[in-house]
Amino acid sequence: MRAIIIGAGIAGLAAALRLHQAGWETLLVERAPARRGGGYGVTFGGIGYDGAERMGVLAELKRRAFVTRELVYRKPSGERRFALSGETIAATMGKKAFNILRGDIEAVLYEAVAEHTTIRFGTTITAVEQDADAVRVTLSDGGTEQADLLIGADGLHSATRALVFGPEEDYRLDLGHRVAVYMLKERPEGLPEGTTGSISSGGRTFAMMSVGDGRTAAFFGYRTDGARARASLEELGELYGDMGWLVPQALEGLKTAESVYFDSISQMVVDRWSKGRVVLLGDAAWCVTLFAGYGSSLAVGGADRLGAALERHGGDVLAALAEWEAELRPEAEKKQQLGRRVKGVYAPRNPLLLELTQLPLRLSSWGPVRRLVERKFQLAG
After folding, report:
1. Which residues does the UniProt record annotate as the domain FAD-binding (predicted)?
2. What are the DSSP calls for 307-330, one per residue?
3. Would you call 199 exposed, middle or buried from its count of C-beta atoms within 10 A (0-12, 13-18, 19+)?
């Protein structure tokens, strides 16, 4: 059996690895000229943790995990407001979860599968045809390929989804926020190793994160509804120009950053993830967004379960896809619903609402409450 996978991000690489382990031949097609790195830090756990363990990459993922020793919430001026200890952060995550850079998840998966799959960088899909026996694709380099299964793992702006399921606007749910993330060339002196600092004010959030091995990520997230609609990186200077602490340094670093992720925060609400021998995986199918905080885990876990379904059904690809979606869709939709709830209180413009949303965090930084929280999560684990 052979699969063509469009997109060599977390979902695509995980699918290539899992299908290789199921005895499939795979071809990975990636639009970017080379493998990407960086991105923001995520909490990896849930079905992703279990899937990574079954695929044999959990130990290496854990090796690349980073630990946040302190999360400091600051005023717009940079003055310290309150902080969460590393112990409290770890307790709320649970035992089967850890923090890791998105790019490091990709690196681990790439290293595990690179010898077992063909990867064509700088290439994308331009046409799809299928019948009862096979699916055929045309690529941007002029080549054509045939396979038993086509997996569209090409992200929020999926070309596969547009070709087979219809235009992006038919499925896109804009959550009214935009995000910009990039890796700094060096860690600023004002950010101790292993710490994260965060500022929220007037519908904007800024964070500077120490993510291990001397690396640092800068994160800008802000509301785009109403008067704060913005569409270019240059306008971040206007949006964040009144903030202190490390914000000016981060804005200056944007001008020379090698790679910046800059996009709206949107979900994909797709009523069916497969059509014939074409299936969507990861953000192309659901995109739960960073508000839900489960995208990487869902991509890896979803790939693992897809491989398991294909193994169970042998050559019956359609039956495998139907079973896989029925099993996974409730969890994906639950996370999407969480993302929609969170977006209403993320980076509120109203100062009072900001205080109310941060009150539980402030309380958990107080000794007696912190110990109660840690004990609660330890017992739950």
Report:
1. 3-310
2. HHHHHHHTT-HHHHHHHHHHHHHH
3. buried
Show the tokens assigned to 76: 């717009």
**What's 87's DSSP letter?**
H
Give the Cα separation of 165 and 167 in Å (integer): 7
- How far is residue 183 from each of residues 39, 74, 187, 273, 295, measured CA to CA in Å? 7, 21, 10, 33, 20
What is the model's pLDDT at position 380? 38
Query: For residue 25, what are the β-bridge partners?
Result: 2
Contacts of 246 (CB under 8 A, 6+ apart): 78, 188, 190, 191, 197, 208
What is the mean pLDDT, run by run of 10 residues, along the chain of 381 residues? 97 98 96 82 92 97 91 90 81 82 94 95 96 96 96 96 96 90 89 91 90 88 67 84 93 88 91 97 93 90 97 93 97 91 72 63 58 48 39
Tokens of 374: 């840690």
State the pTM of this model. 0.88
CATH tag for 2-66+92-173+268-343 (out of 3.90.1300.10, 3.50.50.60, 3.40.50.150, 3.40.630.30): 3.50.50.60
